[in-house]
Amino acid sequence: MTLVKSGDWVFFQGSTSVPVILQEALARRHEELRDVKIVSGFNVTKGPAAFCKPEYKDSFVVNSLFLCADQRQYVAQGYGSLIPGFLSDLPSLIRRREIPIDVACINCSLPDENGYCSYNISADLAQPAVEVARVVIAQVNKSIPYLYGTAMIHESAITAAVECDDPPVDMQFGPPTEIEAAIGAHIAQEIPDGATLQIGVGGIPNATLNGLKDHKHLGLHTEAMTDGVFRLMQSGVIDNSMKKYEPGRSVASLALGSRHMYEFIDHNKDCIFYDVGVTNDPSLIRMNPKAVAINSAIEIDLTGQICADSIGELIFSSVGGQHDFMYGASLSEGGKTFIAMPSRTAKGRGKIVPTLTPGAGVVTTRFQTQYVVTEYGCVYLRNKNLAERAKALISIAHPDDREALERAALERFGYTYHRLSMQR
Length: 424
What we know:
six-stranded mixed β-sheet; seven-stranded parallel β-sheet; single chain; Glutaconate Coenzyme A-transferase; alpha/beta
């Protein structure tokens, strides 16, 4: 990492393929470097990033594009910050050098017979970063699967490399909880045969996918390829036969799952990986009929405003691709969008609230929200006025929260809500 100079903007690839060896090498130079700007997106690692130590605060400044656990505490302490942006827009910001990447650090496969290495396991932001960087430093990794797509680099274009055998993080989830299973069942029954899915990571997405085992001719156009969709691909439920964009192939921008999934997609030409400027482009998402977008929320207010990036003023993640897919799927012929969440947090706080917590960020506006799902049901907000939305949302709130929400709705919406209450 001697190629990194003070003041450089350094990009680290993310997902389950964070080049940890290169991060550690950079951190060891903290005494000789100053004001190095670290840029990264969605990261899955086993602990805090090596450069995220308060004593390194003058050496490394974190500029996260999607805040994750490896950097969240460092940013919360004030040693770094978040660059907000729709995920679909970030590649163009990098390519136009509005985010001026000098050094790109990637985790790539061994070269093929023509000398090309694949880093499509996390093509999302890595591809534009590699395109503009003056220096590319690679972990050439025998355990990274060779995935087809546009995030390819010839070995001659790599400035410096270290060979390693560092498997991507194995991400597996146990069986869904009772609450997750209920939410997943509500969503699954709303998804028609022939739908094209965008679905995230975690218990609720897995529970939803479990409910799709008997569906037919599903497609995949998403950010993250996970074990849940891998199983549906194996069984033939996802065959991509109804898609208009890349028919016959599953489309994603990154892969995160188990070793078995990585083995399945390795050299699998039925899967194609693009940067998020492609996968998250609403004009491409809408091309697929019956596009379905399933996302989550930290909290939602009684008008349908969705906070998904912060807990009050505390930045938790970012907008990610929620806006891109909520908008793109809503434009699709027969498309549906879902916000799915438990009715309460693990600490017992209601997630359906009268108004958002002060400082909370609105990721999806009330004008875009369609279906909202908790373990208590699924409601559709798009054609409803504000009072009707409040009534619908209260019906799927935790039962112990409904009385207080009713009082708040009556105070906020007055007689229009009172009339609805009298119609029970």
